[in-house]
Amino acid sequence: MLKRLRILVLLLLAGLALSERAQAAPGDTTRVTIFSQRKLTHYGFYDTTAVMPAAGRRYRKVLMHYILGRYPCPPGTQYCGSWDYTTRVILQPPAHDTLEMARIMTPYATDWLVRNKTHDYVVDVTDYAPLLVGNPGFRFDYQGYSWGFTVTVRLDFIEGTPPQDPVDVRNVYDGTFAFGRTSDPIEAHLPARSLVAPSAGTIALKSLISGHGSDPAGCAEFCRKFYQLLINNQWTSTTSLWRDDCGKNEVYPQTGTWVYDRGNWCPGAVVRRIVQPLNGLTTPGQPFTLDIDMQTYTANNQTSASAQYIWSSQLVTSGAINFRTDASLDEIIAPNSNENYVRENPICGGPQVRLRNLGSNRLTAVAIAYRVQGRGPTQTYNWTGDLAYGRDTLVALPPLSTLMNNTAGGRFQAWTASPNGTRDQNAYNDTLTTRFAPSIQLPGSITVNMTTNNARNGLWNETSWQIVDVAGNVVAQRVNAASSTTFNDNVRLVPGCYSLRLTDLGCDGFSWWASPATVGSMRILNSAGSVLNTINGDFGCEYTLNFQVAGPLASAANQKLLNALDVYPNPSHDGRFTFDLNLPSTQDVQLRVVDALGRRVWARALPQVKATVQQLALDGVAPGVYALEVRLADGTTLNRRLVID
């Protein structure tokens, strides 16, 4: 009997332990896979169902991971994974509107197989949490006419209290509507709707809209149009249906015309949701009318009027704001090895994070602490500003020494503290951690070898470059370059962190297969002429290479020497500086000023000096960035950057 009682007690304790584990704590994540490595083999719908987590839980955030990959098509297949097609993830909850949750455009990915490449697109779908229960249906809509892609769709349910509890989502407009066709005007599909505002909480119109087709005017894929939102017959806003940043796509390069801007979308990118809050425009608990008026347009040739918009506008209602004070660290942009931040990484200078206010009180101050885990101290940056609820800002943090002298990568961590000088009511969105790779190292003497193509912007070539230090000072550059010309710019750099920034005014790089221009090139060479780095010219609008110039850490004596030199005012408006030198002993000193290409523009010898204050007059020297070199008797050189503006 006693033995049975002991067994019963053990079973009860085990059951309690399992029960405690089943009740996940805030921050715990439940993952549900909807599609797994699904090969896209036909145009149209791919339907399935999925079992959702148990009802009754609150989720701080629900994230959709849409992982696109490739598979080899059968021999002889044309255009395998080669085109930019519309794909949509659609939720089909029982007894409810069918709702489009996300829209992603496939990239031109002919080379993905040989590159063994996939891409994980992440979309916040927290609004749909009340409908992600039970065993709902899901539809993947593939509007492609060739095959070769695979798709995995997964939902991550992150437990905790959301900024606002989502209540409901309903369609207002949903469908594919002709544009510019007199027999089927788009306004017939966008009539005024009679709706009712919730008595509490918030309400917003959230839309996924993308333009397609190509009539003689390029509509609607390649024409810039807009719509107006009317509430109770009153104009409230005008929204452009255009993406003007396709040449800055994180998924690049691609094997097609990825750089061309389009009707509110880009190849290989998530279609951005248009969010229009309605609370200040409606009365709680009262009916209102909502109307969208599309820009007037009629195709000149009705026979070829192929323009259309894929349109999904949803009315999203949410509960009251749950926290008064909540500073959220939304994302670490750099340092970060995640593929969605490839253009910004790797870095060696100042980190970049996105800060968002998710409290009802305006956020005016917060401390942001950050570090490389396991290396060096924690730094703190005190941010000040003014963010209303839901608003965010990009914060550039001061440089971190453990990033500037890093050759192995590691884990970077940042967190917020003391928002508005008080306690944060929601600690679960305060901290983020990323993995990162190190930036490359280059020697202090390099040559930027650039051959321009023949693409012109006015008199000059479209492509230019600058090298800037961590303070944002330009230390070398090649701008207003002649076309079809080779330049070898010798650059000397002191130890530190730098960024080589390329820009192309045509947003098609200096070497792109679809450009009518000739092919350019750019390489970084060492002093012996060996190639250290080759820049891929298919970068679209811009490209940044962050790099380190290594050097020994300054000893206490050397640090004292560094502090012995001061030059002011800097920048100087007229080229005149005050030179203040205070050395530990009397000695001969050589002064030299060189430009960004290492050419001497001024020199002077100072015999037997220890402490001196003199005028350094660079009369007639053109505005720009220069380097002052102070060479001491033992060969030590002190450097200061001079700016004439």
From TrEMBL:
Listed Pfam families: N-glycanase_C (PF09113), Por_Secre_tail (PF18962)
Peptide-N-glycosidase F C-terminal domain residues: 198-295
NCBIfam families per record: Por_Secre_tail (TIGR04183)
Keywords: Disulfide bond, Signal
Domain Secretion system C-terminal sorting: 567-644
Protein name, as recorded: T9SS type A sorting domain-containing protein
Gene Ontology molecular function terms on file: oxidoreductase activity, acting on paired donors, with incorporation or reduction of molecular oxygen, reduced ascorbate as one donor, and incorporation of one atom of oxygen
Coiled coil: none
Residues making up the signal peptide according to the UniProt record: 1-24
InterPro entries recorded: Cu2_ascorb_mOase-like_C, N-glycanase, PHM/PNGase_F_dom_sf, PngaseF_C, Secre_tail
Keyword Disulfide bond part of the UniProt annotation: yes
Species name: Hymenobacter properus
Highest taxon in the source lineage: Bacteria
